[in-house]
């Protein structure tokens, strides 16, 4: 029987940006204005011009998953284009010769730790048959179609299992005839995001040996092999990504990050004079701009950037499992009140983050406290006004000062005309005991299980939910020179699930799922067929309402899109999964290029969400931190 209920979760950074697609005229040497081409609903990104009248095909998340839309100049509303109905992920759509090309992740590979992304095409006319262009067992990203439409280029990961890297995916530039996708040729190794200038020349990006991301040019012979080694085009000293060749001239549009600058911008690079010409910095110097694209006749240069419209507090996400609902929140570590009317969460992890609660229809949010870092929440099933949380820095060592807190408030204060309410914070753990975090309250509301580093190792402990360890003492639940963390109490109170690296304590990155009796006995691992214990990253485990399933965040599906082309994601391979306690019935639940995590499994179905209420944006996002580190 399939799992049911609702899973509440967070997507990293999603609360802080929306995307819209914009364009400038390419014949304007000093652009003074840009044209917004999308309607500010949800996130709209990775566009492609169909013609020089600004007809646009792009990806939008507006229907609950990344899908393909077309904007025509003569039509005011976006048109959703045909694609496999079972697909919950699409990327990099292109239209050439009345055919639509796109990346999709709807066909499962035969092994874990392999990306699901592959290239497909379909006609825009009557025949709606979808054709797979990527061989089964192979992974392709970032397609490009030559000007004639006869040759396809992709950034291909090939048939190898995902190696765990994501700063630079080790993809190759592969080309093949559109008429015969099986005749694949590796044009060059180590390259991504290809862009055709002519049927015999294309550009791509890669990280050079000197550390700078740069644009390279490759020339094809008649048999599709490189006629000479790829040539580096852009100079060191500036990061250049995601090239878009400009037809008819020896220029390319690129996204750049310059030393001493805080934002990614679109520039035009002249490959003969080797000069850069700024574009978006003249318009929006303090906003990130991503992934340029050029119209067929070089009339327009497009890109996407963050907007300023609000993101709803809660939004529905398409689920691959009938009867199981998926709700994305603007915050992390959701915890549902006993009545199901309120959700506690952490919107950010800076010093002002604190703890917030939101109505479960998304209509109103309140702040319980601020000016303290708070993370990982658990709402007492026995009290409508008691929430347990961790207070202190997240992602720190065993000795870092983090404490378990019991937070109480008066529900009568939850009024529509106020944004902050008074709360009382009671610390349950001693300040000299180091890192105490990830509390989970028992179903009867009497005990809290949590992870503590007080022994020098991060193991699980239990304290009284009202008086903590000061009066009631503390009981150690697990013991070993490994990391036991992120516990979750089963709905019947008989078991506790948690993440641990006890299968290999020397590997602080590989975590599996474990279940034990509530007294700490009978520890066993939830084993899933085909898993590799040395590579698993299974975290944020939580029970279903019937106690038969657990949901968790994992790296089992590899990377879905080129991470360098996106805002910062700490783990862009993070997707949500569910599995039965006996390890059977594994289901992938989310599909996107970002990081999903911190699930909470609720028994109720959330109806009538208020999508007009939300988290105000300022257009601020983070570029990948592993790029910033070079500066």
UniProtKB/TrEMBL annotation:
InterPro entries found in the cross-reference section: 6-blade_b-propeller_TolB-like, WD40
Q: What is this protein called?
A: TolB protein
| Organism, as annotated | Salvia splendens (Scarlet sage)
């Amino acid at each position: 029987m399939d799992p049911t209920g609702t899973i509440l979760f967070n997507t990293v950074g999603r609360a802080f940006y929306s995307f819209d697609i914009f364009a400038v005229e390419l014949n304007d040497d000093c652009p003074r204005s840009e044209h917004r081409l999308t309607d500010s609903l949800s996130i709209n990104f990775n566009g492609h011009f169909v013609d020089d009248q600004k007809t646009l095909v792009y990806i939008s998340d507006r229907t609950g998953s990344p899908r393909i839309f077309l904007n025509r100049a003569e039509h005011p509303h976006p048109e959703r284009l045909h694609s496999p109905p079972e697909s919950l992920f699409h990327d990099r759509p292109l239209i050439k010769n009345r055919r639509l090309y796109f990346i999709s992740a709807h066909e499962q590979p035969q092994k874990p730790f392999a990306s699901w992304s592959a290239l497909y095409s379909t006609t825009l006319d009557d025949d709606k048959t979808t054709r797979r262009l990527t061989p089964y067992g192979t992974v392709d990203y970032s397609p490009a179609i030559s000007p004639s439409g006869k040759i396809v280029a992709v950034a291909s990961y090939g048939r190898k299992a995902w190696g765990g890297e994501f700063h630079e995916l080790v993809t190759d530039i592969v080309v093949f005839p559109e008429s015969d996708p099986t005749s694949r040729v590796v044009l060059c190794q180590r390259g991504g995001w290809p862009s055709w200038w002519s049927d015999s020349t294309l550009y791509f990006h890669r990280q050079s040996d000197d550390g700078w991301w740069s644009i390279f040019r490759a020339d094809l012979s008649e048999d599709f092999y490189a006629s000479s080694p790829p040539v580096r085009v852009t100079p060191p000293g500036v990061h250049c990504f995601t090239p878009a060749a400009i037809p008819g001239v020896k220029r390319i549009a690129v996204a750049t990050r310059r030393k001493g600058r805080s934002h990614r911008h679109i520039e035009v690079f002249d490959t003969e004079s080797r000069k850069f010409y700024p574009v978006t910095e003249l318009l929006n110097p303090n906003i990130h701009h991503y992934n340029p694209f050029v119209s067929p006749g070089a009339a327009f240069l497009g890109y996407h950037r963050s907007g300023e419209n609000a993101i709803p507090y809660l939004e529905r996400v398409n689920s691959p499992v009938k009867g199981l609902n998926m709700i994305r929140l603007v915050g992390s570590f959701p915890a549902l009140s006993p009545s199901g009317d309120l959700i506690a969460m952490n919107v950010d992890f800076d010093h002002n983050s604190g703890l917030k609660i939101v109505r479960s229809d998304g209509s109103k949010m309140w702040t319980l406290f601020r000016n303290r870092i708070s993370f990982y929440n658990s709402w007492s099933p026995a009290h409508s006004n008691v929430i347990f949380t961790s207070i202190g820095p997240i992602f720190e060592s065993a000795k870092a000062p983090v404490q378990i807190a019991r937070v109480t408030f008066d529900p009568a204060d939850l009024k529509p005309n106020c944004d902050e309410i008074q709360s009382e914070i009671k610390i349950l753990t001693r300040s000299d005991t180091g890192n105490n975090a990830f509390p989970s309250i028992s179903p009867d509301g009497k005990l809290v299980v949590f992870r503590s580093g007080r022994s020098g190792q991060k193991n699980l402990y239990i304290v009284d939910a009202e008086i903590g360890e000061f009066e009631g003492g503390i009981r150690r639940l697990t013991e070993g020179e490994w990391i036991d963390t992120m516990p979750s109490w089963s709905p019947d109170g008989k078991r506790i699930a948690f993440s641990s690296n006890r299968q290999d304590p020397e590997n602080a990155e590989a975590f599996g799922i474990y279940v034990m009796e509530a007294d700490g006995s009978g520890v066993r691992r939830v084993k899933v067929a085909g898993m590799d214990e040395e590579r698993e990253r299974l975290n944020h485990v939580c029970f279903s309402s019937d106690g038969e399933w657990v949901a968790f965040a994992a790296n089992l599906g590899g990377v879905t899109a080129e991470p360098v082309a996106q805002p910062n994601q700490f783990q862009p391979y993070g997707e949500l999964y569910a599995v039965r306690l006996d390890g059977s019935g594994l289901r992938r639940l989310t599909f996107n290029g970002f990081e999903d995590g911190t699930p909470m499994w609720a028994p109720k179905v959330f109806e009538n969400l208020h999508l007009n209420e939300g988290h105000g944006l300022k257009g601020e996002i983070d570029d990948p931190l592993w790029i910033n580190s070079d500066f």
